[in-house]
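Design request, tokens follow.
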């Protein structure tokens, strides 16, 4: 298959810093869209994968799955995209398209495993897929999203992972007006959760371990902020929440949050702590509560989320950086020193 050489930013080893690399993209096929990448967000999973912390990383790796850019070429059979339009790519670039989940717009739960934007087997070129820290990407149009030109494009990039990861469970558990919804943690995910739950009409209560984040949570739209380390403040919300979106990726006490749920309430995890989280049976039994999880969202739902954000003027709060700042950004990410998402200006990749 014909290929095109492009520049990317990635690494050849877990211990090595990221640097400029040369990679190949396939030539545009009948159903493909080629996108010049303008912005790419930095997700925690980029860092975990680059450093092989979740194991199974194939090197060289080019991370990045919060991609916004402009269409530069389309294949002969492409129906929904035209050269010059804005386009986005999130965490997936393909899936089997035949299993029940793919047929029901749940490609993220494909039985065969969806093809992720980076570090998945590349069925076209062999080897593995390369992500958005790069000049361009070629993706089947069925896995490409339309991006509104109404919003700040750099701020839109994180919607492709952090946005859909929080939107999908809020929708699935039918968050809306008249409900009290808890958001645990104010990071890349949590800050999107606050904005989206608020826009859906819920009364939003934010839980944080840090007094210093109270103001920030209010600015993001929180109706109330609770210091989760203070048992008295926690007790005030006992058995009062309809739904909790838990965005924390570190060890934390799930029971103390389950006990804030009303009867039939659900706590859904979107953070990914490495260690198992203990749950006391009675926290679930007494109140018929559910402890659930959720992973990104399907392609149709991702488009719905992008349209919702355009309608409600929602973008991520970001810090725009050049590729040469990515290694420093990873260190700052580990310290939580970012409000709330780094986005790379891909014009800086030469
Ligand atoms: Zn991500
Ligand atoms: Zn499938």
């Amino acid at each position: 298959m014909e290929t095109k050489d492009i520049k990317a930013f990635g690494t050849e080893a877990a211990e090595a810093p990221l640097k400029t690399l040369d990679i190949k993209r396939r030539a545009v096929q009948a159903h493909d869209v080629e996108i010049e990448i303008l912005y790419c967000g930095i997700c925690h999973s980029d860092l975990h994968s680059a450093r092989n912390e979740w194991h199974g990383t194939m090197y060289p790796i080019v991370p990045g799955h919060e991609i916004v850019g402009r269409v530069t070429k389309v294949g002969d059979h492409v129906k929904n995209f035209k050269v010059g339009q804005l386009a986005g790519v999130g965490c997936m670039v393909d899936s089997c398209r035949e299993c029940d989940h793919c047929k029901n717009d749940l490609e993220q739960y494909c039985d065969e495993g969806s093809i992720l934007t980076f570090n998945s087997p590349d069925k076209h070129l062999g080897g593995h897929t390369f992500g958005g820290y790069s000049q361009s990407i070629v993706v089947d149009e069925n896995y490409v999203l339309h991006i509104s030109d109404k919003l700040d494009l750099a701020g839109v990039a994180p919607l492709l992972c952090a946005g859909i990861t929080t939107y999908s469970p809020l929708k699935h558990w039918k968050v809306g007006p008249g409900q009290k919804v808890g958001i645990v943690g104010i990071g890349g995910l949590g800050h999107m959760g606050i904005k989206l739950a608020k826009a859906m009409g819920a009364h939003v209560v934010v839980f944080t371990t840090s007094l210093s984040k109270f103001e920030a949570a209010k600015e993001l739209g929180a109706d109330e902020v609770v210091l989760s380390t203070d048992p008295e403040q926690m007790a005030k919300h006992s058995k009062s929440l309809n739904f909790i979106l838990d965005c924390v990726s570190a060890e934390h006490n799930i029971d103390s949050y389950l006990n804030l749920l009303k009867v039939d309430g659900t706590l859904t995890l979107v953070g990914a702590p490495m260690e198992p989280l203990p749950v006391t049976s009675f926290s679930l039994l007494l109140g018929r509560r559910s402890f659930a999880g959720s992973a990104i969202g399907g392609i149709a739902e991702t488009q719905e989320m992008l349209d919702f954000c355009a309608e409600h003027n929602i973008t991520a709060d970001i810090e725009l950086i050049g590729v040469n700042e990515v290694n420093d950004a990873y260190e700052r990410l580990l310290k939580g020193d970012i409000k709330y998402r780094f986005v790379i200006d891909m014009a800086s990749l030469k």
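Comment from the thread starter after seeing the answer: thanks! The mean pLDDT is 97.
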